[in-house]
Amino acid sequence: MNTQAILPETPADGATEPALFATMATMRAMRRLKSDPVPDELLDRLIQAAVWGPSGGNMQRYEYVVVTDPAVMAELAPLWKRCVDAYLATTGKYAPAGMDEAAYGRMVAAIEYQRDHFAETPALVIPCYRFPEPRMEEEGVRKYAEALGPEATARMGRIQERFSALAEGSCVYPGVQNLLLAARGLGLAANITIWHLMLEEEWKAALGIPEDMHTFAAIPVGWPRGNFGPVRRRPVEEVVHRNRW
């Protein structure tokens, strides 16, 4: 797997490159945060950006838990440590194929720094979503089966759990990406993780999140200790398939 530092190119026709491209090209996962507080009005702007994201069926059933109280953060820190330690002992034990070992070592060091200083995190955002129960009647189910055909209908029955999870995620993650872009645009550091799902019940209990509400990420936010810079990603020519695979 080849990676390259990505910076926006100057358009061939000399037109001005939209600032958004520079924002995306330098939006690293920033895990080393200063302990300085983030003003509530800036956090509200991040949530506003998230709310502007698309939501399936325009249902807009998202909720956002924003933690800034140091006492609550200190309560969450042991949960974060357990999740990070579990990750580093398994999936995170090895560098991804094609990633330089030294670069991966730096990433792990940043993860460990964030783990060890989590109680000092100025803000944490937990995106939540509660998908409504589907409204189905006999005639609709009949037409559904007719449209898909017997083989696809049976297959949908087997993958319904995955389909439902993706449907919920598709209503949440566009907003999360908006939040991350907004943070970068405002000079704030942020990174998205889902490690909290290993102990989701404990996180929900600590934060008073209703049992029937699903959580989709834990996003630490703060002022960066380091500098933003170009991301390293696979070249477009390695990942694009035109018209067919």
UniProtKB/TrEMBL annotation:
Residues 28-223 form the Nitroreductase domain. InterPro entries: Nitroreductase, Nitroreductase-like, Nitroreductase/BluB. This is Nitroreductase family protein.
